[in-house]
Amino acid sequence: MMRDDPGSIADVSGVTVGHCTLAQGAIQTGVTVVRPHPGDVYRNKVPAAACVINGFGKSVGLVQIDELGVLETPIALTNTFGVGTVANAQIRAAIAANPRIGREEPSVNPLVFECNDGYLNDMQAFAVDEAHYASALDACSADFARGAVGAGRGMSCFELKGGIGSASRTARIGEHAYTTGALVLANFGRLSQLIIAGEAVGRRLQGEAHAKPEQGSIIMLIATDAPLDARQLRRLAMRAAAGLARTGSVYGHGSGDIALAFTTAYTAPHDADFIALPLLINDARLDPLFQAAADSVEQAILDALFSAETVAGRDGHRRVSLNEALKTRT
Questions:
Q1: Domain ranges of the chain
Q2: Residue numbers annotated as active site
Q3: Which parts pass through the membrane (predicted)?
Q4: Which of 272, 28, 49, 40 is CA-nearest to residue 152?
Q5: pLDDT at residue 210 in the model
Q6: pTM of the full structure
Q7: Could you give the angle at the alpha carbon of 65 between the alpha carbons of 93 and 251, nearest 5°?
Q8: How do residues 231-269 score in pLDDT, each as one tens digit?
Q9: 3 state SS of 70
């Protein structure tokens, strides 16, 4: 099964991604960092909004995003038990760059998302430490790996090997062309649910069906260079659910499905008395961006599946890659 180059979230100018991967025996995990721009995000905050599709997640920072409508740190992804450690690392990094934080200036709002990689990774080992966040941050680049890397190392998707995937699309509104890119941490779904380009591939691969409930999660990050405010970005984030549904997900009871959208079109300077907004896109003209968000999320999920390698981890558990499954079961 062939696929075209899906692009990546880094097609939005200024956005970079870095990984730190831990892969040894029962430890199959890591950290992934998304930088919305190359500068200090605390001093030049980024407009953002989140949408919780199903809330079975343990993230840090969603309340502040909802209230303030901006990012103050890069976005971090890791496993469930690593959230607190990575949040501490984000705070320390912000303080190192801005020593007045928590003293003469307000505190900083870290942002960490998670999925549970406990099938392949021994989460009880608490293998993720603060240095791994720093390593992922230092590795940020427009050219980054996908699949079983960084936070995606131990993730499962449709009972196959999941992980990090990315894609992008162009949306045209009037005379303007805007880039919308997605990055996902894919860790959800049962094999029988998997749909690729409208085809029920999972049913063909599975053979005998079973009735286990969907208990995974997915984090969907959407970047755009379109001039939107936080309210509009929340509307854009909601369209991630359309792309997720196309792959077969039903957002099961135990699933943590969270989307966040941000724009690089402008920043909110920390020290400014006023913020100069660009001309914002009329809500009635947003449909091309909604389409681009749904398409890029769908393709990012497939990118995670096609990019991942087969991984063995804790207690002999093993997740086969989609590529291997297609070769051996069809």
A1: 9-329
A2: 217, 255, 257
A3: none
A4: 28
A5: 60
A6: 0.96
A7: 110
A8: 999 999 999 999 999 999 998 888 889 999 999 999 999
A9: strand
